[in-house]
Design brief:
Elements: E1 8-12, E2 17-24, E3 27-30, E4 33-40, E5 46-49, E6 54-66, E7 69-71, E8 74-82, E9 87-89, E10 92-93, E11 96-99, E12 104-106, E13 109-110
């Protein structure tokens, strides 16, 4: 695999299945079946869940873009994007959430913005 910034690394093709713990750096796309845990090493890392993907896992990633199906809790340091036909059954947590029409979400959502995004405290200045 190449390690240049911006490269997409395909982890699992459509007919592949994997069970275990995945820790990665950079960008990874999953189009097959995955069961277990997925972690990224940096808030700049991203995971793409392809249309044919079926994920049963706990995710703790930088950014996740979901076109397929995820069953499990999803935590993102930057953003979660739930695309048309994407499905999440589990709790999600991220500073930014994007949900397209035609997607499905069942669970709870927690959004904590960065300190710069929080409104000023009474008295005027941001803290």
């Amino acid at each position: 695999m190449s390690t240049r910034s911006g490269d997409m690394h395909t982890l699992l093709a459509k007919e592949s299945e994997f069970e275990g713990k995945l820790t990665f750096q950079g960008q990874v796309r999953i189009d097959g079946k995955f069961s277990g845990q997925i972690f990224t090493r940096s808030p700049d890392d991203s995971l793409v869940i392809g249309e044919t993907a079926r994920i049963q896992a706990e995710l703790n990633v930088g950014t996740v873009i979901i076109y397929g199906t995820v069953e499990g809790n999803v935590k993102a340091n930057r953003a979660i994007e739930l695309k048309k036909n994407g499905r999440v059954k589990g709790n999600i947590e991220a500073p930014t959430l994007s949900v397209e029409p035609g997607s499905f979400f069942e669970g709870s959502c927690k959004m904590d913005g960065s300190p710069a995004a929080k409104p000023p405290a009474p008295g005027g200045e941001r803290k």
